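> example.struct
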């Protein structure tokens, strides 16, 4: 704001300044109104009725738009606050130093003159150093391989030449790194092949989508033994997670989509410091029936943590022939049943149930990262009394509430799975919920927003193979591009089948 001493004496100039100030206020009001509309739209997307809600995966997009609009308003306010003067924008929050492994390009900016006003020379007494993140756009290059031929002048027979390097695509264009880039773009960054072809074409490279599809199919075939080794390694564990989600598959015969399912079998022992590395293996199936779950877990013995889907009951049926499996259920799903009731108005019983479950989660937060035996001891001391009291509370309210009411059905759900919900009290390795596997299965939902998973069931199988390896890389903080490049290179150079375990994602750094 201008001080009185800064105001001009000329009446016309004062009027012009007043008009400009009023115009700035109008613009500011308009910007505030636009932001309020954005906030209202975002609230509707997040908290509106189910039929009016946006998909959860769209929330990030809404946040991006909102944050971008706020930044633009700040920029306009700065420009309005001192028109005609250079602006010094506030520095953005630095969320951490730039990684040390990034290459550094140093530049030194010297003053215009190193001669002092007194005529003497200036000498350096220190320096200010700043770092900014720069980018070189992705650029394709051509690897030219020359293999000279040699012959002896004294002999007429025999030519010496180095053997041609192995290639995944025989006599084809791409290196293994190029194929890995396509795989990561499709299965980790959710870029369909036709979009990748469009991006590549901007560098003057004409690659048809079908060509990229051939590369992906051949890579999936070569990676299948690694996927099988991953699946087998997971089943050797005695504690796993399992979840499923739908995946549309195009049925060429009917020209319509049919509903397939991807099942995730996951291991994550990090919350209790287990030694086995985390991993996930996806399997496609034509349906959601328990027979598919039974087929997928064949050979596994131990505790399987799942949600309340009835299909899993087949795994613990008394007449089932196979390995022994115990089911641990998910408190997050039980909690969601009660949350839905509280959204429709006052619901004291449901709110009390949420408070009790919240106490269990607070205890779990304090035990996270402790060894399994310490977690078990903490649960038996602190959580077990709460569970016993909740069991009494549940029995009392089920007797008072109508069984067909939403609250009655929510309480019946908790009672039905009570034994499995309490499984975490008996084993420190068991989590209180199934969220670990739900996080690994989220990329399926993201991919579902961009394209069908497959034009046929074989395509779904390819997706399961590659996505399993990429998601396992993420769980182990391994760069999927580096992993796939190294793994494909090892396979085409004759990596032995009896050492396939060396190619699992957590072994890449070794």
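> example.seq
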């Amino acid at each position: 704001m201008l001080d009185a001493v800064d105001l001009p004496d000329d009446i016309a100039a004062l009027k012009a300044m007043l008009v400009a100030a009023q115009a700035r206020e109008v613009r500011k009001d308009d910007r505030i109104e636009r932001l309020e509309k954005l906030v209202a739209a975002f609230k509707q997307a997040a908290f509106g009725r189910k039929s009016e809600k946006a998909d959860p995966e769209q929330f990030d997009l809404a946040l991006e738009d909102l944050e971008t609009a706020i930044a633009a308003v700040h920029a306009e306010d700065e420009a309005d606050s001192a028109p005609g003067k250079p602006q010094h924008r506030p520095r953005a929050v630095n969320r951490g130093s730039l990684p040390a492994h990034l290459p550094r390009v140093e530049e030194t900016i010297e003053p215009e003159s190193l001669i002092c006003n007194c005529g003497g020379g200036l000498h350096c007494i220190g320096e200010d150093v700043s770092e900014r993140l720069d980018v070189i756009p992705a650029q394709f290059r051509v690897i030219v391989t020359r293999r000279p031929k040699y012959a002896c002048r004294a002999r007429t027979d025999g030519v010496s030449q180095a053997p041609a390097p192995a290639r995944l695509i025989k006599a084809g264009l791409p290196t293994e790194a190029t194929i890995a880039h396509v795989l990561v773009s499709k299965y980790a960054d959710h870029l369909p092949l036709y979009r990748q072809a469009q991006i590549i074409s901007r560098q003057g490279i004409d690659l048809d989508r079908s060509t990229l599809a051939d590369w992906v199919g051949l890579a999936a075939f070569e990676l299948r033994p690694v996927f099988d080794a991953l699946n087998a390694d997971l089943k050797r564990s005695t504690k796993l997670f399992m979840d499923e989600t739908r995946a549309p598959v195009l049925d060429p015969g009917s020209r319509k989509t049919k509903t397939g399912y991807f099942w995730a079998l996951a291991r994550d022992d990090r919350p209790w410091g287990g030694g086995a590395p985390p991993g996930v293996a996806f399997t496609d199936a034509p349906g959601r029936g328990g027979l598919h779950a039974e087929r997928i877990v064949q050979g596994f013995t131990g505790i399987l943590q799942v949600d309340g889907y009835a299909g899993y009951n087949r795994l613990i049926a008394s007449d089932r022939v196979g390995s022994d499996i115990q089911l641990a259920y998910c408190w997050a799903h039980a909690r969601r049943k009660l949350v839905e009731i509280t959204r429709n108005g006052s619901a004291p019983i449901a709110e009390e149930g949420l408070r009790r479950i919240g106490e269990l989660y607070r205890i779990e937060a304090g035990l996270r990262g402790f060894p399994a035996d310490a977690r078990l001891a903490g649960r038996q001391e602190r959580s077990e009394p709460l569970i016993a009291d909740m069991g009494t509370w549940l029995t009392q309210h089920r007797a008072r509430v109508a069984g067909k009411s939403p609250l009655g059905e929510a309480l019946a759900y908790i009672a039905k799975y009570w034994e499995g919900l309490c499984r975490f009290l008996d084993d420190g390795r068991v989590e209180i919920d199934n969220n670990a596997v739900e996080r690994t299965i989220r990329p399926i939902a993201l991919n579902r927003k961009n394209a069908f998973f497959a034009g046929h069931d074989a395509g779904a199988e390819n997706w399961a193979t590659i996505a399993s390896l990429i998601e396992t890389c993420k769980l182990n903080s391994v760069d999927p591009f580096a992993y796939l490049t190294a793994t494909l290179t090892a396979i085409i150079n004759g990596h032995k089948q009896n050492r396939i375990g060396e190619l699992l994602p957590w072994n890449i750094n070794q």
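> remarks
The radius of gyration is 31 Å.
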